[in-house]
């Protein structure tokens, strides 16, 4: 429709995993406005304050419009200053550096850090380029910092990733529990739906279970402030109450579930760069730790307080659990009585133990009210957690025990932070251990299937799991990785303990490339900056947190000489001959071992040693040639990557439709590219079978894959074994296909706690006005004015004790780094005594440089919520 010469098209919000549909106004080749799409089922016309600025984030005054390289005397020089260069100069140097690394150290020294902000074709192209082309599995997204724990818990519980429910459950729920999830700021449009439910169905109850009072507390009926990490104990208390009150849905559990536990798996994460670990201890710490159990841990595990135990860090093996009986499960949860958990978990000094106990019991009463529909929501509070996998699994256990999962108004719902963490990072498999549609690089059948669909010689894919994101950064530091290309991510600001990684990026042998739309902190610390096309300057699809895949077509030309990430990967792939990348190369982590040459097999397929990676990965094949382009509906200038590359086909469509083949028949079925691009299709919830979306998985009334005898996809679980980072088959899942697991996971203390040297907790996160590291939202004047800097939230008494008051500048120090921030003692985050909070959007504050880099030992996701710090006047 025309409106003052503005043409409106459908689009998707660039920010959070809510995935709000937009109407995007274009006039004179420029995006001039956006508004909430009234027909979009997610947001029904609403946007949050960030969403309304989707147009402005494209046009900041310092938008990158040409490649920039550090140079001196006309040549690349690590110590040089950034100078504009042509795309040929940029990509030639990049290829030269990669070949140098490849020749010296093999493919395991090359890495790409991707993102949950990739479009689906971008993530798929990256996976193909890195795994199929470079034969390295060192591709890992910033989603590793965001929801890796949720992913592993999904696999281990259900055998397949992503939520069973959908957002409409908000309107059907009677009780909603927020687990460490400040939805009011992190998922504001979902929160508006929660508010609508609360205000229109007055019996609705909302409980905010959190380490501090926050904006979500304003609407919640109750806020339960707990001591960091004790959420594990609180959920175990609820499990105990369900069993004690005889409320286990026996018919459901006996038919569809087994019990599992892994109580000895109490590794302390990989804190190899922390002050705790001297370099000589690194190896030991990664594999085995001697841990002195504290009083609570000991009780929770049926051991003696002060006992020193040797604990293996599972480091991602699938041996982290095994089947147990219901009786064993009951014995495991027995210590989690009201008194024990209340004493352990009470998080606010100013609240009495009786009040806290009463709150826990009231929460149990709500959970145990079988007549009320029950939804649980969580996001980073659970995932960025040293026991993230466990605590995700425990909430599933609660819902499964009650038989309240995958039903309208009933389910455990892991929300996502990024617009396409689900669609791109997870489903496409842009992780170091994954291949598309839940397949794994360590599984020979999965590699063979992928090689066949990619039309690559057998044996192309490297069987060794790649480096996860934190391992890549450590590799950059210790020299095992020399090349890093970060795409759609600002990792040197967002990663924990990042002063290390900043120094690593400047190591003389390292070559760091950043593609982005703005000169982020990471870009300015790199060697080469590539200007990327913004979201509406390219064709794209995102997959949101409720399994909704949504597409949009390119609306305007990229700014200046910016190019899409797909274009960059395709152009770069033309600069490698197969002889250069597919010969014999060293294998990661196996001294003396080699990745065998596949050149001979390639020749049998018509790919000569002098053919390029582009020829092998992206050149027109029968399928791709069928992705005809240009489409007469759109002007040539909006033909995106295909037009810019002079290709006779449409790469984004070809990539998506090729990827789609992985999804069909595997419980992830997607519709075709053209369907998602239709203006009247506002996204579809996968699996899409016979043109129909699936609102509830694991529910025979809705899900074509769910069978009464195999509710949790039995045959698929057998064919696609679960497991986590190593890709080792999950034996319990294999032995019981079609059954979900109810886990017992004990409480375990966090890796460090406030002590005499660092006496406060620090947790970090997002605020309403800014997206992640603020690289886009800080360039919107209205958002910048609304929240110009990250504030240090603390209790007024804690501030006063340190001679600080609201508005003073404080120095925050940890064992890992320091930063300065202005003190805030009121407003949105009301901290209990002993706790502080900082947002990470502010480049000036660089909050995450203070954070510990300890990870969950199974998912390898870092914990941003529990660093011990001290605060003083700056
Ligand atoms: Fe919707 Fe999230 Fe975008 Fe806000 S930021 S408009 S809630 S998708």
Task: Kindly list the characteristics that best describe this protein.
globular; alpha/beta; Phosphorylase Kinase, domain 1; Barwin-like endoglucanases; six-stranded mixed β-barrel; Rossmann fold; 18% strand; 874 residues; 35 strands; binds iron/sulfur cluster; eight-stranded mixed sheet; 30% helix
What's a concise summary of this model?
GO terms for molecular function: 4 iron, 4 sulfur cluster binding; electron transfer activity; iron ion binding; molybdenum ion binding; molybdopterin cofactor binding; nitrate reductase (cytochrome) activity. Its EC number is 1.9.6.1. Helix content is 30%, strand content 18%.
Write structural notes for this entry.
The protein is α/β, with parallel strands linked by helices and 874 residues long. Among the domains are: 2-58, Phosphorylase Kinase, domain 1; 68-146 and 425-652, Rossmann fold, CATH 3.40.50; 760-873, Barwin-like endoglucanases (Beta Barrel). The chain is built from 32 helices and 35 strands. Strand 26 and strand 27 (594-595) form a beta hairpin. It is globular and about 75 Å long. The site of iron/sulfur cluster has 14 residues, from helix 5. Catalytic subunit of the periplasmic nitrate reductase complex NapAB. Receives electrons from NapB and catalyzes the reduction of nitrate to nitrite.
